[in-house]
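Recall from the previous chapter that SMILES is a line notation for molecules. Here it describes NAP.
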Amino acid sequence: MKTVVVTGATSGIGLAACRELAKLGYGIIGVGRNADRCAGTAEALQGEFPEASIAYFCADLSRQAEVLRVGREIRSHVEEKCEGKLRALVSNAGGVRSYYTTTEDGYETVFALNHLAGFLLSHALLPCLKAGGGRLLVTSSASHKGTRVNWRDIMFRRRYNPLAVYKQSKLLNALFAFGFRDRFSGLGVSAACVDPGLVRTEIGLKDTGGLVKFVWGLRMKRGVEPEVPARAFARLIDAEEPPRALYYRGAKPARHSRQVNRKNADRLWNLSEQLSGAHREEAKT
Ligand SMILES: NC(=O)c1ccc[n+]([C@@H]2O[C@H](COP(=O)([O-])OP(=O)(O)OC[C@H]3O[C@@H](n4cnc5c(N)ncnc54)[C@H](OP(=O)(O)O)[C@@H]3O)[C@@H](O)[C@H]2O)c1
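With both inputs in hand, we obtain:
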């Protein structure tokens, strides 16, 4: 049985992707931040797909120590139960914050969760992806267009704007996929990012204040159901050939911003290595 890891697997796009993949016979390893939601989701999915192999792991992915711990746990699980092989990592967990907040590592929360967590977890799971000729899919967004990386203040310490911070994080997702491809496609691991379109999920209603909730409450009504992008993820994972393009809108190759280039990708990669250095070294062992 082929196995996939999906982060942000307790609601929205991630949960729907788990369901689509379980339908196709994939073993599911879900990651969520809340123990009760993880247990409840695992139980519900197992009820729907009694034959499927479903395992959920709980971690607050905005904290590097937690990313590392869950990476280790998932690796042991994959080695014990899945011959050490992963078909895919869907790096999907993400969120929005109305105000500047920091994690225990001292990093801005959206930057840490939406970008650094995926960077670190993919390193922790790289041996399993290599063994399985795996695919890394990162959930980006069309909102990465029309923005640039704020290199002078990448964590928006000086002037915080929730929309600018979120859009930048989705540009970082695309740059991370670019950098990952550059470095690891020669080892048989492919990487791409997926724009799911506007999707009716509660992302803007969680961990946010009144204004963001109000705006997202209106906007989400125009979104598609999470099953729509979930089917695209499943198609990209299940296709015989790994994704060739870097950027997909749904399951179709699409144009990304010109900001998604090697110069920016390398700069982000170097910075991310510095910001997660100690943990990344540990992740390799
Ligand atoms: N909705 C859209 O229109 C849209 C468009 C473009 C891109 N995206 C991207 O799609 C991805 C999924 O978002 P969604 O819309 O499906 O929202 P969602 O339903 O809120 O899903 C987010 C997932 O991430 C989990 N999560 C949040 N903070 C976490 C943390 N600190 N540690 C671990 N897991 C955490 C959530 O857990 P809980 O279930 O506990 O909240 C949930 O499972 C995000 O990367 C988002 O940027 C969404």
